[in-house]
Amino acid sequence: GIQVEQSPPDLILQEGANSTLRCNFSDSVNNLQWFHQNPWGQLINLFYIPSGTKQNGRLSATTVATERYSLLYISSSQTTDSGVYFCAVSYNFNKFYFGSGTKLNVKP
Amino acid sequence: GAGVSQSPSNKVTEKGKDVELRCDPISGHTALYWYRQSLGQGLEFLIYFQGNSAPDKSGLPSDRFSAERTGGSVSTLTIQRTQQEDSAVYLCASSLDWPGRAGADGELFFGEGSRLTVL
Fold it and tell me: Hey, are the CB atoms on A45 and B31 less than 8 Å from each other?
């Protein structure tokens, strides 16, 4: 299967700081999604981004498919951004392979 | 309902008992996935249903695990003779999309999960 590696595994930020999360994957994919798992366990889809760049408010993501990586940027972080961020990849919409996640703790 | 619904939200069982976990996907979604998340870990793929196609069962960890999807909607994940290592959160997701659908993005919508504890 496709190997997905996320870094860093843990990240502690002061409120207002910026951060970059990285997702590397081992094979060609045509579907890449970023998720946020809140402290209650709910997974929310942030971006569908198999290539290119997208922005949604303080969050943006870039995927360079030819180099097999994606980046998630969080600007002006807030305590509500805390949780675990997962990257998931797929080829042709069947099984999605998830990374182990980046656990983010934003301190007030 | 508006989202993916899973039940029960919590299940405590004794080793050796059978359990059934239910997933009710978003209405009209053709794809349905089951994943397992052990404490502090990532998501492990279990099974994928897409329309009337044969399911992809390649992630089921043993023959004690089975799943079915009736009428292209509700799915049930059954674990027979539960073991302590089966303790985890079982997550269900659905998607509107399939390969080749115009404008498809395969966005996954997850339920809140069923937390299984095997004593």
Answer: no
